[in-house]
């Protein structure tokens, strides 16, 4: 994964969430992305890992909204980017740990379908595709985040990679 400049990652994320391109995102956009991931990995929507994922998406949304000056509950692009920076990147590691870590671990657990603590390249590719990230160089990205070079991406390697990507 390429390193995005601070703020740019949230611009991209906005485009990914705003599927109907009306320029606003709300709680349902977060819920729908969680549901797309659950479907893509063939998880039972009522399974613990699916429920934890859905809850983690809502948690991120509520945290970001709490940093936004909004009345309607839907966020414009500017509001989403500013609130995400305030909630996450402006606070560095603390912001990531508080706001995003539960969500990223929930993603990792969903991706690790067989529960062996490792995320395969196919699983990583599926995750990237669903969240709308460019998946054209998945093999290179997968090797890059396999920091101990054992040929597999562990859950901790996955979380570290997302952390680096978000914090820049
Ligand atoms: Ca696995
Ligand atoms: Ca590894």
From TrEMBL:
Residue span(s) of domain EF-hand:
5-40, 133-168
Give the SUPFAM superfamilies listed for this entry: EF-hand
Q: Name one Pfam family in it.
A: EF-hand_7
Task: Please indicate which superkingdom the organism of origin belongs to.
Answer: Bacteria
SMART domains recorded: EFh
What is this protein called in UniProt? EF-hand domain-containing protein
């Amino acid at each position: 994964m390429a390193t995005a400049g601070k703020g740019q990652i949230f611009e991209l994320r906005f485009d990914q969430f705003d599927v109907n391109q009306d320029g606003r995102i709300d709680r349902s956009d977060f819920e729908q992305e969680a549901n797309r991931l659950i479907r893509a990995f063939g998880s039972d929507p009522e399974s613990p890992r699916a429920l934890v994922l859905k809850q983690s998406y809502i948690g991120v949304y509520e945290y970001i909204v709490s940093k936004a000056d909004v009345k309607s509950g839907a966020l414009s692009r500017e509001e989403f980017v500013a609130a995400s920076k305030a909630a996450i990147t402006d606070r560095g590691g603390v912001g990531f740990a508080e706001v995003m870590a539960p969500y990223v671990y929930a993603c990792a657990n969903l991706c690790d379908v067989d529960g062996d603590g490792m995320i395969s390249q196919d699983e990583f590719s599926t995750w990237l595709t669903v969240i709308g990230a460019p998946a054209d160089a998945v093999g290179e990205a997968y090797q890059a985040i396999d920091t101990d070079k054992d040929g597999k991406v562990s859950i901790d390697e996955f979380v570290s990679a997302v952390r680096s990507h978000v914090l820049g």
